[in-house]
Specification:
Elements: H1 3-11, E1 15-19, E2 25-29, E3 33-36, E4 42-46, H2 52-64
Antiparallel strand pairs: 1-2, 3-4
Length: 69
């Protein structure tokens, strides 16, 4: 298992590498945003659909709280 596969597994996310023609490929992946704290722990998930104003508000509130997640 690669490092990125292990990381995704640990945080409950997934992705699939889809080979294309020649050297090309695409990647299908989870759509959620994962908040990782300074100690590399998952501290939250934000699931789609995303509301930009709400997302900005929530992230500013978290960032401005002065507390560790």
């Amino acid at each position: 298992m690669s490092g990125i596969e292990k990381f995704c597994d640990e945080i409950g996310m997934s992705f699939v590498h889809i080979p294309g023609a020649g050297d090309s490929y695409t990647v299908d992946h989870s759509g959620a945003l994962v908040l990782i704290d300074p100690r590399a722990r998952v501290s939250g998930y934000i699931k789609p659909p995303f509301d930009l104003d709400r997302l900005v508000y929530d992230l500013q509130k978290i960032a401005g709280s002065g507390r560790q997640l």
